[in-house]
C-alpha cells in the first residue's frame, strides 16, 4: 500500500534537523559553479569550504536550478511509494526550481501539488511545517497545497546584505545601486516582497544601525500582531546573530528565536556577513 503524501523542497530552504530526519521529506539540491567545477549545494560543498572559496575566488561563482530530468528521476522513484507529493520551492521570481520540479513531475507522470513559497530560507521551511500540521488535521493534499499558497502573505523578512559586490555580480543589484552603496559605505536592507521579488527597502550607515533596524522591526510586529516566533539566519557571523537575539529578547522576553546558517547557495548571492530576520505575521490560530 502506498503512502499518501511525500514532501519535496530544495536547498534554498533552511533544512532543520526535523526535515532532515523526516522519512517523507526530500530535498533537491541546487548547483554551485566555480568555473568548470560544479557542486551540489550542501552535498559536495560545506559552508566552510564555500567561504574559503569565495574569499579566494578570481571568478564569481554562479548557481543553477536542478534540471527537470533530476526531478523526474526523483518522482519516478517516489511514484512507486507515494500516491502524490506537495512541493514547496523557493520563489519562482528568483529561481526556476519550481518550474523544473513541475516539469519533472509531468515527465514522470506523478501527481504533484506545487506551492510557490514566494520566499527563501525559513520562509519555505515554515510553510512545510505548517503543512505537516494541516496533514495531521486530515486535509487532503490538494487543500493543503491551496492553503499553504494562501498563507505565503504571512511571511515577513528583513535582510542586511553582507557583501554588496556579490549581490551586484550575481545580478540582484544594478550598477548605480552598487556604486552608491560602495561609495557611501551603506548597508542596504532588502526584502523578499509578497510577490516573491528581492527589493531594497532601506539603507543604514553602520552594522550597529542595521542590527537596531532589525530589532525595531521585530518590536513593531510584536506590538502590533503579538509576533513572538522569530528566525535569525546568518552567513558565518554567529556572534552577531546571537547579539541580535539577545536584543530582541530584551523587548520580547518570552520570544522563541531560532538561529541558523543561511544555505550555501544563498550565501553565493548575499555574501558572507549577511543576516536575515524572519517571522510569520500570523493569526493566533496558527501559533
TrEMBL record:
<dbReference type="InterPro" id="IPR003797">
    <property type="entry name" value="DegV"/>
</dbReference>
<dbReference type="GO" id="GO:0008289">
    <property type="term" value="F:lipid binding"/>
</dbReference>
<dbReference type="InterPro" id="IPR043168">
    <property type="entry name" value="DegV_C"/>
</dbReference>
<dbReference type="Pfam" id="PF02645">
    <property type="entry name" value="DegV"/>
</dbReference>
<protein>
    <submittedName>
        <fullName>Fatty acid-binding protein DegV</fullName>
    </submittedName>
</protein>
<keyword id="KW-0446">Lipid-binding</keyword>
<dbReference type="InterPro" id="IPR050270">
    <property type="entry name" value="DegV_domain_contain"/>
</dbReference>
Amino acid at each position: 500500500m502506498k503512502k499518501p503524501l511525500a514532501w519535496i523542497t530544495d536547498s534554498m530552504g533552511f533544512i532543520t534537523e526535523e526535515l532532515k530526519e523526516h522519512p517523507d521529506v526530500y530535498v533537491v539540491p541546487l548547483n554551485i559553479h566555480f568555473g568548470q567545477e560544479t557542486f551540489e549545494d550542501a552535498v559536495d560543498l560545506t559552508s566552510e569550504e564555500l567561504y574559503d572559496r569565495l574569499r579566494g575566488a578570481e571568478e564569481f561563482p554562479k548557481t543553477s536550478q536542478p534540471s527537470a530530468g533530476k526531478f523526474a528521476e526523483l518522482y519516478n522513484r517516489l511514484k512507486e511509494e507515494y500516491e502524490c507529493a506537495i512541493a514547496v520551492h523557493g520563489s519562482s521570481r528568483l529561481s526556476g526550481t519550481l518550474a523544473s520540479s513541475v516539469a519533472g513531475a509531468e515527465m514522470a507522470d506523478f501527481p504533484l501539488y506545487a506551492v510557490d513559497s514566494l520566499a527563501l530560507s525559513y520562509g519555505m521551511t515554515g510553510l512545510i511545517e505548517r503543512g505537516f500540521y494541516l496533514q495531521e488535521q486530515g486535509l487532503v493534499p490538494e487543500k493543503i497545497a491551496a492553503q499553504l499558497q494562501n498563507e505565503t502573505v504571512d511571511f515577513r523578512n528583513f535582510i542586511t546584505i553582507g557583501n554588496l559586490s556579490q549581490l551586484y555580480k550575481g545580478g540582484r543589484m544594478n550598477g548605480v545601486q552598487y556604486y552608491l552603496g560602495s561609495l557611501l559605505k551603506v548597508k542596504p536592507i532588502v526584502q523578499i516582497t509578497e510577490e516573491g521579488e528581492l527589493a531594497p527597502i532601506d539603507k543604514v550607515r553602520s552594522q550597529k544601525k542595521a542590527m537596531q533596524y532589525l530589532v525595531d522591526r521585530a518590536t513593531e510586529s510584536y506590538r502590533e500582531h503579538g509576533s513572538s516566533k522569530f528566525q535569525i539566519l546568518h552567513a558565518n557571523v554567529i556572534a552577531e546573530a546571537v547579539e541580535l537575539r539577545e536584543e530582541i529578547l530584551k523587548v520580547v522576553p518570552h520570544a522563541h528565536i531560532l538561529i541558523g546558517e543561511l544555505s550555501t547557495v544563498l550565501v553565493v548571492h548575499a555574501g558572507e556577513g549577511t543576516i536575515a530576520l524572519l517571522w510569520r505575521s500570523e493569526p493566533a490560530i496558527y501559533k
